[in-house]
Write a structure and sequence with these properties.
Shape: globular
Radius of gyration: 20 Å
Helix content: 25-40%
Order of helices and strands: HHHHEHEHEHEEHEHEEEHHHEEEHEH
CATH topology of the domain at 22-30 and 45-286: Spore Coat Polysaccharide Biosynthesis Protein SpsA, Chain A
CATH architecture of the domain at 22-30 and 45-286: Alpha-Beta Complex
Distance between the termini: 30 Å
InterPro entries: Glyco_trans_14
Structural class: alpha/beta
Number of strands: 13
Number of helices: 14
Largest sheet: 6 strands, mixed
Pfam family, one: Branch
Protein name: Beta-1,3-galactosyl-O-glycosyl-glycoprotein beta-1,6-N-acetylglucosaminyltransferase 4
GO molecular function: acetylglucosaminyltransferase activity
Subcellular location: Golgi apparatus membrane
């Protein structure tokens, strides 16, 4: 927040001189894996013994801009962790080629075995993460926690810092979970998906047909699509009859990814349960993602210094200190085409922290 430095970053943005790297460039770079891994520094990344004893898993759902996805992977990469990448079946051939190249070259990075044609606010967004969860549980890496990300996320903490925070959860989950309020309309009637065999159009459309109540007398909660889940809870979510029934019931609801996790973590007796008697777990209390909504600016947090798209702030460099000091683990959203300085600063800060950690 030093005025002179913020001013410099604004000049960079105004010049709009950021040279975007094409999907094809990333795909071509991964044709020589040894050169790619070495040039990007993946082979030089080391972990402490404490980190190796607490492996993490990631579900990364993406659809465009391979260069940003690669920067995200590099920022969160540890050779003992495991990373599932789910690309949208609607993505371009160049982007898909780049994702396959990254998975081919970087150890412990793989493409989900089952892929979805992701539709906004539809069940496919939730299934993309569930597909990755299934693959991650089948992997040889016995990870402790799984975190899901999208292509415009970026870490605010090093892996070592994240492991330290996750140990403090003692098996609990970090999921936004609030009373539904006016969002009950998302599941009181059926929603239909429009398609013509291969392409989806728009958001799910509400009908006048009433839905049955949630199965197993579930009490509904809402939150976000993003989560940090213990391994034990992930097993429950994929294999328990209650969870399977709830998923099937959610097929024709609106944005089921925003009530599926929020509701399941409240079920009495589940691993890492959030008791229904507990206060609401808001997005500011859930550390996984720090999202800035335009309609809450000036009330809960300072104004967006980047650009707001669909009410969500794409951060600017002037928010760097706020992002780092708030205590969350990932920033959503970032985009070098909006502000290249922010991501470069975060990369530099994280790298300096890692080097200090390993020099001790």
């Amino acid at each position: 927040m030093e005025p002179v430095e913020v001013g410099k970053s604004l000049v960079v943005r105004k010049e709009n001189s950021y040279g975007a790297i094409s999907d094809e460039t990333i795909a071509n770079a991964t044709l020589d894996c040894d050169q790619f891994v070495s040039s990007q520094g993946y082979d030089a990344i080391q972990a402490t013994e404490t980190e190796r004893e607490f492996p993490l898993a990631y579900s990364i759902v993406v659809h465009q801009d391979a260069a940003i996805v690669e920067r995200l992977l590099r920022a969160i990469y540890m050779p003992h962790n495991i990373y599932c990448v789910h690309y949208d079946l609607k993505s371009s051939a160049e982007f898909i080629s780049a994702m396959k190249g990254l998975a081919h070259c970087i150890p412990n990075v793989f493409i989900a075995s089952k892929l979805e044609r992701v539709q906004y606010a539809g069940i496919s967004r939730l299934k993309a993460d569930l597909n990755c969860l299934s693959d991650l549980l089948d992997s040889e890496v016995k990870w402790k926690y799984v975190i899901n990300l999208c292509g415009q996320d970026f870490p605010l903490r090093t892996n070592a810092e994240l492991v330290s925070d996750l140990k403090e959860l003692k098996g609990g989950n970090m999921v936004e979970s609030k009373w539904p309020g006016d969002k009950k309309s998302r599941w009181v009637v059926r929603y239909l998906l429009k398609n013509n065999d291969s392409e989806y159009y728009g958001s799910p459309i509400s009908t006048t047909e009433e839905k049955s109540p949630p199965p197993h007398d579930l009490e509904m909660f809402v939150g976000s699509a993003y989560f940090t889940l213990s391994r034990e809870f992930a097993v429950f979510a994929l294999n328990n009859t209650l969870a399977k029934d709830f998923l099937a019931w959610s097929e024709d609801t609106y944005s089921p990814d925003e009530h599926f996790w929020a509701t399941l973590v409240r079920v009495p007796g589940v691993p890492g349960e959030v008791p229904r008697s507990d206060p609401e777990v808001s997005e500011l209390m859930s550390k996984t993602h720090l999202v800035k909504w335009s309609y809450l600016e000036g009330n809960l947090y300072p104004p967006c210094t980047g650009v707001s798209v669909r009410s969500v702030c794409i951060y600017g460099a002037a928010e760097l200190r706020w992002l780092l000091n708030y205590g969350h683990w990932f920033a959503n959203k970032v985009d070098p085409k909006v502000d290249p300085v922010l991501i470069e600063c975060l990369e530099e800060i994280l790298e300096e922290k890692r080097l200090r950690r390993y020099d001790k």
